[in-house]
């Protein structure tokens, strides 16, 4: 009995870390519409039937208030990371596999940006060959327009478009200084030339398609797709960098609205003036086939996120893959849709791989009193 209570406390404290963030997001919304008692009851009945325990309602409150659309199927982030990804994906493989320097190793034959230089744990590699720092500087001295990015971070942190000529970066600093700033675990790759229809949405960023897929046996299902669009003058399209996301309909057209950071809701056009509703994503059918084929090469990950752009020739190009993708539920609605029950029930048949924090008595007591008293 004591062991069961201890595990329950650890589980709830893990979920609480994510609950605080969504609760803060709700406070930033212009329309704070609380759930009705009937809605609260429906949510708890639905999720208790899947998990065996009741869940915090903050995520359902946030997404329902933000979008105006109620559903019991919104997936709480804490539940998703603990009970879905934490059971369906092999967590010990997630971190090393997600290293962006591994992309061409995992998917050697597919369309992706050419990597000129890799830095892995402080060591330099060119075309798979280890080289010295001086050799790396010499080889990169006249690359022209390229992209440099950290390889162990997310949300577009540290990604920059640079011009390298005669060993100088953007005409005012040396490559040696750039390498010193990034220190270790980064790469330099080709600047993607995207399709004109994608560039029209925002020419300053590479605007990507985020596809989330679910593998069950030899079947791969695309749970949803969303387009991510940068803002004027921004290189990154992530919402965390000020970008916006809009749902892609089954026919490859965009939904009416995009969503950015909390409070940046119901955006109808891009900064370039392009109306979102009905805008056609080029080569959309190719993207769906592309990500399904790719997922079959990742047998240790049942839920995967893909960042795909459309190159100037109209072909899908893989930028990154995500072993624990964030869910775009403001833009697309409940992330798992009609597959929610199947995914959660399958996950709950597998052991949880998360290593939960040891119980801190002070934190546990505070949590207990806040929750029950």
Outline of the structure:
Helices cover 35% and strands 22% of the residues. The protein is α+β, with helices and mostly antiparallel strands and 373 residues long.
Topology-level CATH name of the largest domain: D-amino Acid Aminotransferase, Chain A, domain 1
Task: Give me the count of strands.
Answer: 14
The average pLDDT is 92
The CATH superfamily of the largest domain is identified as: ATP-grasp fold, B domain
- Domain count: 2
- Number of H/I helices: 13
The structural class is alpha+beta
The CATH architecture of the largest domain is 2-Layer Sandwich
Report the end-to-end length measured between terminal Cα atoms.
22 Å
Main sheet record? 8 strands, antiparallel
Into which percent range does the helicity of residues fall? 25-40%
Strand order of the largest sheet: 3-2-1-8-4-5-6-7
Helix and strand pattern: HHHHHHEEEHEEEEHEHEEEEHEEHHH
How much of the sequence lies in strands comes to 15-25%
Principal-axis shape: globular
Taking all Cα atoms into account, the compactness measure Rg is 22 Å
List the uncertain runs: none
User: What's the level 1 CATH class of the largest domain?
Assistant: Alpha Beta
